[in-house]
């Protein structure tokens, strides 16, 4: 880059900054800016398009196109060259625009006379804001230098927009972080909450994108990068020595030392950006690439780079936790993603959690569920939009978030919360009543748990026991494998808290989506069907043996109940059972007190086990259907994949027939059968499962009240008839018939 272009670029940025510092409404400023850019770059046209909504770009200011087209010309995302720049988040530079595929001529603008076109995205750390375009009559591509210069200008515009420079009387764009925004995501945990935003990682605001003294900025950047490298080295020296963790940190260090990254930022500074604006410009590019890279490994590395940029920005701006922001009294945590340990650290004080990423089965979701905190996942770009302290409503039932809601929305939402509270009161009144249907059939309702924090719910919910204790959570929230003595103490406390009620401990269920931070991650083409759960336990029995010993010691003479996850064939159950009983024998030889009795069951999570030999059903002390997994394998529909996971109804006739088959097989041998997947906690699904013959359901504690309430209102025998008739009629799902039956009051509902 020549000295001259550097100086030109700096001069333009300074003029931009001065323009923005002048008084004036947003529209006036935009007009002056387009004039300034066109003049400085020697182009006939300069236009600014801004997003009106997620899908629509509007021409908001122009120098050179017809003035009457401003605020009239609109394009959809992906439409024409401008729409393509926005969608692909990268520049388009062409010497002959009309001949480019996708070109769309907009007659009202009078642009037909301009051949060359250069459009660059206006974006701020991955947040799309608009497109900046220059055009000229003369055919010919713009030089690399010109593209770069325009990108730098677009970066400054994005920062200015973020600071609210274009709002005002003209309302060229809506005020950032001021208006109401709704995010439609997915349900991670049901429930409704109202509160104020608490950002897990507060956003950094760059207030000085343009700098006068590149030398001083370079020094600031170098100093900050030096500090960053030291902090990464420090992380490495304090790492646990675990190979995987070290590998990740080393990759991190490699980025921190990357010449390419530094060089680009130095060039940005040469063009007139401040050090922090240069970091942010490169971060925006990384984020844009993140959205387009399908390879998980590369994405992970880009995430590292993104994290490093955040750290660097904090060092440069001094912004972060130390700014002393106070956590609101009713915090709703907003984050891109969060680990289970971090979420537990926040604990029950959170009113709700909203994540941009996350998955239904992620560890964070499991923790949110056990803490009964409403959780919405996949909430768009909420971390770019929300500010600490913003009012927020979280609707975990619908997977919807209202940020800075209008009063009408907020008051309707409060009504909903009040209604839910009322219903909870009603359910609390049923706490000590049995779940008996109108004909006197009793269904035992148990709860699912996984953390000590769950145990108080045992008394509060009226559950008769813990039908599924997910032991992997104790492993997931730590950074090292827990010790046997630690586990024995935890399991012992769980049994103490249960006060003699039955607790079914499920042995470690890891792999698939549940990856331990300290476990060597194996790249598997299809982890849900890969090396997981009992398969890991049998191939590497060390941890399973240790866990068995901890459970036996924790029981300390009390009855002990365990079950194995993901048993796909009889032999696996036999092997696991023998392994467990061998530990009982070992403990006996070592002189430990043995459990009064040991019950050993299997989870039925793969269709194959339903067809196991009769000997399996005879040997198993009980069987528990893990409906979450069973359903995904029955329909071959990934439970984590939002695209397909809702496609198949749990009340699908084929699935209910399959449940019926399992009930029949267990009945032949008198093997107790329960159901512990999420469907057990959904009232309509729960009564249908009960009608199919399940006599024990295990669910999250908050579901016990609603499920019991509905069971007590219906006649399960009648419901069975409704299900059978609907099934015989050839329908795909019995849901409409069941809902009809409930609605007409036949089911006992008003
Ligand atoms: C299930 O698969 O239904 C189950 C209860 O286990 P998890 O959700 O932990 O896989
Ligand atoms: Mg499972």
Task: Give an account of the 3D structure.
This protein has 750 residues and is an alpha/beta fold. The protein has four domains: 6-173, Beta-Lactamase, CATH 3.30.450.40; 181-201 and 325-413, Phosphohistidine domain (Glucose Oxidase, domain 1, 3-Layer(bba) Sandwich); 214-317, Enzyme I, Chain A, domain 2; 439-743, Phosphoenolpyruvate-binding domains (TIM Barrel, Alpha-Beta Barrel), CATH 3.20.20. Helix content is 45%, strand content 16%. It contains 27 helices and 22 strands. Strands 7-14-13-9-10-11-12-8 form an eight-stranded mixed sheet. Helix 1 packs parallel to helix 4 (144-162) and helix 8 packs antiparallel against helix 9. The longest helix has 24 residues, at 214-237. The radius of gyration is 30 Å and the shape is elongated. The mean pLDDT is 87. It binds phosphoenolpyruvate and magnesium ion.
Summarize the structure.
The protein is 45% helix and 16% strand. The chain is an alpha/beta fold.
